[in-house]
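Troubleshooting log. The previous structure file for this entry was overwritten by mistake, so regenerating from the original sequence record. Sequence copied from the archived sheet and checked twice against the printout by T.R.
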Amino acid sequence: MRVVPAGDLALSVEFAEEISVETNTRVRALEYLIQQKGVPGVVETVPGYRALLVYYDPSATSYDALCDALQPLAAQTESAALPPPRHIEIPCCYEDPELGFDLVKAAERLSLSPDEVVRLHTGFEYLVYFVGFVPGLPYMDLPERLTIKRLDTPRTKTPPGSVSIGGAQCCIYPLDSPGGFWVLGRTPLKLYDPGASEPVLLRSGDRVRYRAISRAEFDELAGSPARSGGEVKRD
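Regenerated output below.
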């Protein structure tokens, strides 16, 4: 573990040079411990795959003082008990090529049938490592069999709700944005709603499963007045 400055208002606590559940668990554990201890001067924390970015108020603490406060907490991250994760079900329509417009080509690239891709994608429980790139976009893991090279030419616009894979990652685009992932389907859920009490639907540490739905169910859920556009199950 090492601590490095990130400008004059933040520092980064880096745990490893790898993407792994174990490393990310330590990142989330440090964030949790900072929140529980109420570390003076900390104004925001931003988890990533392998590091935690900690913003602080320089009028309330100094870089050196914050480093000293975080060192003993970082040492506890291997044994800290985190709260139980939220389990969230994401409905996704794969069957309509208008929504899952890369499914057939992705299946060909993976030497699988489209049905096999859907079966593998819906049969896995995903970990949300962190949220980034654009507001509300979750970076999740992926079944090894679905690991796929990203698009050779990224598209300039990916529709909101696009459930996508690229490399060893799965994500859902919350907004119209550029992207280099293969779009397998689309969810009617709103991943980002700035008018909601909780604007971002998913957060680091969530466990996610996808449920295949028909185009008719997609349209019905998309027309729901709820911010989610459909049902979200949390345990």
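The CA atoms of residues 137 and 167 lie 16 Å apart. Archived copy saved in two places this time.
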